[in-house]
Amino acid sequence: MKIRPIDTKDQPKLLELFRLNTPQFFDPSEEKEFSHYLQQDSENYFIIEEANSIIGSGGFNYGFDKGKTARISWGMIHPDWHGKGIGTKLTQYRINEIKKHPEVEAIVVRTTKVVHGFYQKQGFELLKIEKDYWAPGFDLYLMKMKLGSKFR
């Protein structure tokens, strides 16, 4: 199993991965936004592969709160690999990449009810819930992890 940066040729397979996780984790209306993200904002987006097959992906972005906050974004795992530690491995990889930037003091994730427990186990704390944020029935769970010198 390996983690690597996204390549432009990955986009069709990533859209397929998105669809495999719809509607359990994403609303179909979010596909257009995900496609735009892959084309415009994916400089820190990573693929996790097993036997040259994409089994997961996820990214992060900088520049929030005057550069003091990074945001984990668009994480997803192939349904055949759910519950096997792949999401944890990919999340920890992204957190470790973010920690390489000492100016970042916190990491936020915007997620849903279905996944917020996973992020709690990773050390994120729930800040707020906003009903029907992503789409009807897809509430926003805004979560945050503070970084400090003891975590680096």
How would you concisely characterize the structure shown here?
The chain has 152 residues and is of the alpha+beta class.
Task: Describe the overall structure.
- With 152 residues, this protein is of the alpha+beta class.
- The chain has a single domain, classed as Gcn5-related N-acetyltransferase (GNAT) (Aminopeptidase, 3-Layer(aba) Sandwich).
- It is 28% helix and 38% strand.
- The chain has 4 helices and 7 strands.
- The protein has a 7-stranded mixed beta sheet with strand order 1-2-3-4-5-7-6, sandwiched between helices.
- It starts with a strand and ends in a 6-residue tail after the last strand.
- Pfam families: Acetyltransf_1 (PF00583).
- GO terms for molecular function: acyltransferase activity, transferring groups other than amino-acyl groups.
- This is N-acetyltransferase.
Write the topology of this structure.
Blueprint: E1 2-5, H1 11-20, H2 31-40, E2 45-50, E3 53-64, E4 69-77, H3 86-99, E5 106-111, H4 113-121, E6 125-135, E7 138-146
Helix pairs in contact: 1-2
Domain N-acetyltransferase: 1-148
InterPro entries: Acyl_CoA_acyltransferase, GNAT_dom
GO molecular function, one term: acyltransferase activity, transferring groups other than amino-acyl groups
